[in-house]
Predict the structure.
Amino acid sequence: MPSEEAPTRPRGRARRDGRHRVRAMHPAATPFITRAIPPYEMLDDEQLVQVETHADRILQEVGMEIRGDETALRLWEAAGAEIEGASKVRVPIGLARQIVKRSAPSEFIQHARNPARSVRIGGNATVFAPAYGSPFVSDAESGRRYGTMEDFRNFVKLAYMSPWLHHSGGTICEPTDLPVNKRHLDMLHAHMTLSDKPFMGSVTTAARAADSIEMCRLLFGAAYVDKHCVILGNVNVNSPLVLDGEASRVIRTYAAANQAPVCVPFILGGAMGPVTTAGGLAQCFAEALFCIALAQLERPGSPAILGNFLSSMSLKRGAPTFGTPEPPLAYFAIGQLARRLGVPLRCGGNLCASKLPDAQAAYESASSLWPAFMAGANFVLHAAGWLEGGLVMSYEKFVMDAEQCGAFHVIARGLILDDNGFAMDAFQEVGPGSHFLGSAHTMRNYETAFFDFELSDNNSFEQWSQEGARDIVWRANQKWKAQLEAYQPPSLDEARNESLIAYIAERKASMPDMNY
Amino acid sequence: MPSEEAPTRPRGRARRDGRHRVRAMHPAATPFITRAIPPYEMLDDEQLVQVETHADRILQEVGMEIRGDETALRLWEAAGAEIEGASKVRVPIGLARQIVKRSAPSEFIQHARNPARSVRIGGNATVFAPAYGSPFVSDAESGRRYGTMEDFRNFVKLAYMSPWLHHSGGTICEPTDLPVNKRHLDMLHAHMTLSDKPFMGSVTTAARAADSIEMCRLLFGAAYVDKHCVILGNVNVNSPLVLDGEASRVIRTYAAANQAPVCVPFILGGAMGPVTTAGGLAQCFAEALFCIALAQLERPGSPAILGNFLSSMSLKRGAPTFGTPEPPLAYFAIGQLARRLGVPLRCGGNLCASKLPDAQAAYESASSLWPAFMAGANFVLHAAGWLEGGLVMSYEKFVMDAEQCGAFHVIARGLILDDNGFAMDAFQEVGPGSHFLGSAHTMRNYETAFFDFELSDNNSFEQWSQEGARDIVWRANQKWKAQLEAYQPPSLDEARNESLIAYIAERKASMPDMNY
């Protein structure tokens, strides 16, 4: 790991704005959440075995298809699966779980170029990452529009500056002003230079996945990358039960380089899976298990994450819905299944269907983030910015969501049951009928006692009215603009950056612009 | 229980609007939630004993005061507590818990005048009740204003029509156009006539509590009331550690009549309790325990509910805050403590500090309701309508919150792990790479498969834009107005209503109007 990365310091204009404000805007010391409280255990062992058994039956009786990756089929065949026709893989009962249990790590470190920001993925750690993949962006003033590379850079900066987001994410929004076959190079470069948090690479083709890893070798050193996880790739299954050859090669490309694929069945109940939650759950577990097993067959011991993306559907309108009660039940169960299997779990974060960052968006988001956290999710993608079923990355929702992630840092700590926590001295001092405002215990603790949402207005109605009777979206708009104003990049070794720039130039010159 | 109460039928204008719409607006068949999933267990037994021990120490070493209720002091003295001076009660370690464990029921039925709407309180049941006690009301068109008796009646109607609220609540908003010493009579009459769901009575003085119970005797019959719980009274402790004589007499009045006091410490951390959550938790448990024990000393075996209202504070602004991460930790713990003690638990519901039903309100509310539900709350007060720290009852937020309560009906059912749930026939039918839209399994299940928020817009951006680009508040405004339009009162025996009206007239004539 390069050691020249100094901690970020305030400087230039930011310093003139006052030290306090700049300090408050810099990332918190804790690079990820360590949960001191247990996850929620909804199902008993017998019920968990039932789900595992049905997942096994799906893999054997129905089978998965790998369409166009002969190597992957041969790996499965060698492992004991039955290959049928050109693409069908029937996995004997229990085999996929055996392969995964044998070699997949239950937790691993994803290293950041700034070692202080490396994250632990798995066990009792939780990592929050921004939303991923939206073609559109929006803000309160300009409305909804196609995302650009400038938007992409802005969101990387905002994620870097948030003390509550631990990860820079991946395709934080689509830079639609760049050609599809080259934009991954600019996206990676933005993550590597504008932030020093860990990040994700391209998954749209195996060649772009290879580019992503190659750029990591330039940033971290090739020998380092072979031994340490420095990049994740978020791979969607073509649910139901198909892994196309490109996705399969992307999984193998990450695994071969000892990097971590995030294996994500993408299931809208009633379309890519059954309408009943138990069925969607068993399918999701089966598909993710199949992908992680493939990664282990490619390179035993390489890191991987069990993902899930389960959404319900409005059966009146045929549209995907979020914040509904079915996905939380699946989250709780799959958290338990992931722990039994011994692999890290990815869940979705602040998901919503709303077109605006209104109360619909917030109810829906909280009803996704709460169960994800309680399920023991280790890697929470889409933790900030997601709007309109993932079609839009919203500047205002980004900073609003990030603060909600902040609150879970406190919940994760649990109750502090020590003498100071129980405050017997305060009760003795204050006694019945008085108040604790000036007590020694309050004076000793008040600065760190309570989490305070910066974007929440708790003033009196009169004061709030005098100040313009603003809603939270107005305050969020002020906040993200102030943050981008105050942004200062983390330092980066010039030689490494030049090698990245040279690589990008060479790759871009090697092919014509294409929009697929 | 009177048996003449027929199930509510659509009629009059509502019928002309179309049967389907009216049917959809009528209360669901299930009168309360039965949780098939376990509550969240955050603390281990040793930690729970630590909290109990500190609560015991508070009751013994610091003591509670009962200010101005000699009978209550004598009850405690006879039970073995030490009375010091005119008001201090020191309770020997373990005594309060012994008293409660000896006779308080772990669950009970609160009977409604329509037996189909009676609720179970305790165990694995959860009951949602509207917000309580706001002096102001607001709606999107008229803004914020003092509440009136007309507003009160409107909210009783809306709670009656919601399939997701099981309870009519109590002081659903303050009817500030009526004299303080008489308004409880009109409030009770509204609950009794405009709804047939269970309700709460007055707690502002012991005489008004007695009026509330007397009206129940007229509605249900005196002998019935002595044997069955038909009314709750929500009593706040004057935290820290004081029970004023009026509150103490109100608790005893409900208990003596075999009705259920809800015993609620009201603690803003840093003001009425310490700033550390463990201390606030131990205090809350001690105070609630003390009140339930008093109810048991008054009438052993009478029903009671262990309440808690713990809020954090913005230490920048000195204002109470909601949706913050500290109260959830207290909720989880007090849920476990209530189960160990063997009494039903009350938690707050959709609490928030926001002045508007915006994303702040929704994030904060969901971050109160989620932990309340996961904690295993049996009676969730403030489940709908609460705005601005409880100062405002909002028409729009009322219907928005009620729908959120709806989702928890599905979560409570848990995963259905049967053959239909696992849908193996669907996987066999559909196979890899196809879709489930027309499968036999989907056809069989789609009507009941997913919870669909009526107030959420899941349409395409284009359709939503064409329809006016409305936020959820606009849709909520349409909804509550349509509901009030369609409202039809449940039937009520005329003779009983006349006896209620006569009682109210007599009581009103017996005293001058007063505003305290």
Q: What stands out?
A: The CA atoms of residues 416 and 422 of chain A lie 8 Å apart. The first strand of chain A starts at residue 33 and ends at 34. Chain A touches chain B through 129 residues (CB under 8 Å).
